[in-house]
Predict the 3D structure of the following.
Amino acid sequence: VIKLRRDILDPAIDKAIAQAGSNDLAAVWLKLKDLAIDEELPFTGEPEAAALCYTDVNDKPKKLTKDALGKRLNRRAVKRR
């Protein structure tokens, strides 16, 4: 499966991976949480206990959970093999 377009969260996840220096879920989650607090787009700066809040391409509020991030990271790892 080839992804034809990027998701709105892809640039922030790429940045968090680069800052973390790995694809480790815990490390990437912490970096994403920092980005969310700093209101890095598309995050709204309102992290909750179990999710990071962001605005999707249709300007609708969404939440990214740690489990959902883990699934995204796993898909990326499979894609790179």
